[in-house]
Automatic annotation (TrEMBL):
It is found in: Cytoplasm. Residues 353-380 form a coiled coil. This function is generally fulfilled by the C-terminal part of HisG, which is missing in some bacteria such as this one. This is ATP phosphoribosyltransferase regulatory subunit. Pathway: Amino-acid biosynthesis; L-histidine biosynthesis; L-histidine from 5-phospho-alpha-D-ribose 1-diphosphate: step 1/9. Belongs to the class-II aminoacyl-tRNA synthetase family. HisZ subfamily. SUPFAM superfamilies: Class II aaRS and biotin synthetases. Heteromultimer composed of HisG and HisZ subunits. Keywords: Amino-acid biosynthesis, Coiled coil, Cytoplasm, Glycosyltransferase, Histidine biosynthesis, Transferase. GO terms for molecular function: glycosyltransferase activity. Residues 12-314 form the Class II Histidinyl-tRNA synthetase (HisRS)-like catalytic core domain. HAMAP family: HisZ. Required for the first step of histidine biosynthesis. May allow the feedback regulation of ATP phosphoribosyltransferase activity by histidine.
Length: 384
C-alpha cells in the first residue's frame, strides 16, 4: 500500500457518504440556479497569472507553472475574475445572469487547517445597477439554506468601502488608512486605538473609538450611529444598509440578519453592499458576496455594474454530513441463480447494497467491515 504522504498538501480524497452528499448539494444548487434562469458558465482550471495580478486575493498564494510559451499560468484561485476576463473578450450582450460550479486552488498558510482545493458554486449578475441584484442574492441564501441545512443561516450585511469612506475624511495618507483598516479588521484593538489617537481632536473620534464594536443586531447598531456626526458619504452608505434591512424584514421576515461595520470585504474588488451567510452550527461563511461595479475596468475601457456571490460547497457538506443520523446499512448475499430475486429485495430495502462476495464467509467479513446487517438469501433468513 502506498504511503499517505503521496497526497499533495492541502488536498483530500472524497468517497462514500461524503462524496454522495456533496454531489447531492451541488445538484440542488444547480437546479435552483436553473429554475431562476441563470446561464451556466464554465472557465478553465488554468488561467494566465495576469488575470489576477491587479488584485490581492486574500491571505494565500497561487499555484504557478510555465506554459510552452513562457507565460506564467496559475490554477485559478477565484471564479469571478475568470468570468470578467471572459466577458471582456466576448461580445455577449448585457445584462446577464451567470451561474457556475467548480474547484479553486489556493495555497493557504501552513498549519491554518484550510484545504488548498475548494469546491465553489456561485452566481454573477453583470450589467445590473439596481439593488435588485443584491436582493436576488439574499433570496438565494434564504432559499438554499432552507433546502440544504437543518440549522438556520444568519445573513451578515456590510459595506465594502465603508472604512475608506470614513478614513479618507480624516487623512489623505493611503498607507495610514490601510494600516488603521487592517488593525480594525483583524480586531487588533490596542494597535487600532494607538493609530487613531492622532485624531483625538476630530469630531469623528467618538465614532472611531466605538467602531470595532459596531456589529450585531441592526436596530442596536443604527441607534448607536445616531449618536455620531458622520460625513455625508458615510451617511449615504448607512442609508443603503437601512434599506436592505427593511427589505429583508418585509420580503423574507423569517430571515435572521445582522450588521458588521468593522469587517473586511470578501475581496479587494468589492465596492458596495456586502453580504455573508453563516450557521452557528459550523465555522466559516457558507455564502459570501456583494457588489463590485469597477471589476471589469481592469479588463476593458468601459466598466460594468456587477454583483456576485460564492457558495462554499465543502463547508455546507461538512455541516450536512455532521448532522446526518447513523444509517443502518444492509448487505444482501445471494447465489448467482438468485440475482433476479436479489434485485427485487434491493429495490424495496432502504440503504441496502448487493454483496458480490463468492461465499457466505466472505460476505460476513464484508458486512463486518461495512458495519452492516447481512441479509442471507441463500438460507432464507437474516443474519446479524
Amino acid at each position: 500500500m502506498l504511503k499517505n504522504n503521496l497526497l499533495p498538501l492541502g488536498t483530500r480524497d472524497e468517497f462514500g457518504s461524503r462524496a454522495s452528499e456533496k454531489q447531492h448539494i451541488i445538484s440542488v444548487i444547480q437546479e435552483v440556479f436553473n429554475n431562476r434562469g441563470f446561464s451556466k458558465i464554465s472557465t478553465p482550471l488554468l488561467e494566465k497569472q495576469a488575470v489576477f495580478e491587479p488584485y490581492k486575493l486574500g491571505n494565500y498564494q497561487m499555484y504557478r507553472l510555465l506554459d510552452q510559451e513562457g507565460d506564467t499560468i496559475v490554477l485559478r484561485p477565484d471564479m469571478t475574475l475568470p468570468i470578467a476576463r471572459f466577458l471582456s473578450a466576448t461580445n455577449i450582450s448585457l445584462p446577464q445572469k451567470f451561474s457556475y460550479v467548480g474547484d479553486i486552488f489556493r495555497i493557504s498558510r501552513r498549519l491554518s487547517g484550510s484545504y488548498n482545493e475548494l469546491t465553489q458554486a456561485g452566481i454573477e449578475l453583470v450589467g445590473y445597477s439596481s439593488i435588485k441584484a443584491e436582493y436576488e442574492c439574499l433570496v438565494l441564501i434564504n432559499q438554499l439554506s432552507s433546502q440544504l441545512l437543518d440549522e438556520p443561516v444568519e445573513i451578515e450585511l456590510g459595506i465594502a468601502d465603508f472604512a475608506k469612506s470614513v478614513l479618507s475624511t480624516l487623512t489623505s495618507d493611503d498607507e495610514l488608512q490601510d494600516e488603521i483598516a487592517d488593525a480594525l479588521y483583524n480586531k487588533q484593538v490596542p494597535k487600532y486605538e494607538e493609530l487613531i489617537e492622532q485624531f483625538k481632536e476630530k469630531s469623528e473620534y467618538k465614532f472611531l473609538l466605538n467602531w470595532p464594536r459596531l456589529f450585531g443586531k441592526p436596530e442596536v447598531i443604527f441607534n448607536q450611529l445616531e449618536e455620531y456626526k458622520l460625513p455625508d458619504e458615510v451617511e449615504t452608505r448607512i442609508s443603503e444598509l437601512k434599506n436592505a434591512v427593511a427589505w429583508i424584514k418585509q420580503t423574507i421576515p423569517e430571515q435572521t440578519v445582522s450588521i458588521d461595520l468593522s469587517s473586511r470585504a470578501p475581496q479587494k474588488y468589492y465596492t458596495g453592499l456586502t453580504f455573508k451567510g453563516f450557521s452557528k452550527a459550523g465555522a466559516g461563511y457558507l455564502f459570501s458576496g456583494g457588489r463590485y461595479d469597477k471589476l471589469l475596468a481592469n479588463f476593458q475601457d468601459v466598466s460594468e455594474s456587477a454583483v456576485g456571490m460564492g457558495i462554499d460547497i465543502d463547508l455546507i457538506t461538512d455541516l450536512v454530513v455532521g448532522s446526518m443520523p447513523k444509517v443502518n446499512k444492509k448487505l444482501i448475499y445471494f447465489e448467482d441463480s438468485q440475482w433476479e430475486k436479489a434485485e427485487s429485495e434491493l429495490s424495496k430495502t432502504p440503504n441496502a447494497t448487493l454483496s458480490l462476495s463468492d461465499n457466505l464467509k466472505d460476505a460476513k467479513e464484508e458486512a463486518e467491515k461495512m458495519n452492516a446487517e447481512l441479509v442471507d438469501m441463500t438460507e432464507g433468513e437474516t443474519i446479524d
